[in-house]
Amino acid sequence: MNMTLAIIMLVCMWLSVAVAMLWGVLRIARRHAQPVAQTQPRPQPAPARRAPRAAAAH
Fold it and tell me: Where are the annotated segments for Disordered (predicted)?
């Protein structure tokens, strides 16, 4: 086998291993990422206040 061919094959194998490791890391990182809220949370409405009661005459 020619020395040039051996070096080219070694570089190609190194690149394929690097791409496979990067793909695996990105896959794990995407799986464990926190979900992003699509919409902003709506503010809670203020509780309704009761109307003052009229004094009862006895």
Answer: 34-58
